[in-house]
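Why predict the complex rather than its parts? Because the way molecules touch one another can change local conformation, and only a joint prediction can capture that. The input here totals 554 residues.
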Amino acid sequence: MTFAFPARAGLLAAAGLACTLGCSDLAVAQAAAAAPAVADKGDTAWMLTSTLLVLLMIVPGLALFYGGLVRSKNMLSVLTQVLAVTCLSMLMWVAVGYSLAFTEGSPFIGGVAKAFLAGVAKDTVNSGGTIPEYVFFAFQMTFASITPALALGAFAERTKFSVTLLFALLWGIFVYYPIAHMVWQSDGYLMKLGALDFAGGTVVHINAGIAGLVGALLVGKRIGYGKDLMAPHSLTLTFTGGALLWIGWFGFNAGSALAANDVAALALVNTLLATAAAALSWMVVEWTSKGKPSLLGTISGVIAGLVAITPAAGLVGPVGGIVLGLVGGAVSFFFCTTVKNAFGYDDTADVFGVHGVAGIVGSIGTGVFVSASLGGVGVENYDMAAQVWHQIVAVVIAVVWCGVVTAIIFKVIDLAIGLRPATDAEREGLDISAHGERAYNM
Amino acid sequence: MKIVMAIIKPFKLDEVRDVLTSIGIHGLTVTEVRGYGRQRGHTEIYRGAEYAVSFLPKVKIEVAVPTDQVERVIGAIVRAAKTGQIGDGKIFVISLEHAVRIRTGEADADAL
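Output of the joint prediction:
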């Protein structure tokens, strides 16, 4: 199985996964290696679908999920930021992003050989894979787009629109492309180390969570934070967006098999079960400790579960996935309530508490539950302590790289144009002051 | 003429309207309002953020009536809006100097 989809999931090969899910794929891959690579119709169909499912996660899913969480005066600012950052990230991806992440270069960043898709034609197949490279490019483009959009939620309601665009521009180049390269490209540092990240626990979620936290700290708290009523203006929209995220996540996780095969099937099962476990986990812990089971808590548990299972989706068994979900939901709840209040940082949409924290739980937990003895797919010469150590190293490198570089990016933007709108503009709401329109005319 | 203004629980609005119609009052203005009296507010929790909500949603109705009907109207509203629980609301009676029906120009008692 590991040789059928090397380009992105090639880390599995590097990690020496035991061939427990379908050794026949090996023969297929070897046969394919002899003839010129031709895209497989079934794989291509699934990956076309997966690409659009990930887009569904961003617009409308993530935009509505975050939009419902802010006050009505900032609704359109969130929708506009998510939409514009997504579009900008797509153009950056074709210009340099894809090449910097997914071509050979140094262990930390790729080259510019495929800038503006140089050398990629209609009939080019992705490296060692079975889908057109255009599809691989587009699938990865949606990942590069959702990650900075995820981070936006942490410093929503108080950041200049121009700052969010500059952030996406610089952060893509200096944080996302290097970390994606390190984790997913065959010569990447963490790939060679043997760290496992099936669908982006490190690259997408820890990355977005840390960027969000650093952004929230450097932009500062919203005016009136801790004093004024800042209740979410529409949990109905948050629920709608959260539900779309769950549906779209099947493209994200099962699509990360890069093929319509048994690995995708396992990822799909895990993306259902771990999510259900995390939703109930958050709900029950909240019910026990705060007295009531809330919708916001339960849908937040859904997201925490999806994040926790992301690095593990095609690697752990369903029961291992459920355990990851249960732990991810409870730990995220603890961070979004107790830890956030203890430290007093203003993470508007709890990007760190959900994506950062559940991402870390999932990434480290993958090292445990990938074990064949715990129902996972297994890794050749598996040693739990060593694998967990590799996972921790990957998490620490992602946290430190992302934390330091994001801080520098925000400092630079602050010096150049300032991070926050005028006090009056923030009080009036960013919809009117930055975009000249109002979400609800009633 | 008087204006009878009552602040009531929102779910009691239809019952109040029915009882006022049954005693011959045709016309009433309704506003959604928020406020507090002796009823305590409640706490809302959104993930880690807890908010004490002290202004509760109520409905304000205003009825303009001839002075001799004021007591009947008050009695009807009390009958319909009372639950016996704290937070049932209040009734205020205010003097009304002048009234005009816009369509016909009728004034005062004829306009009610």
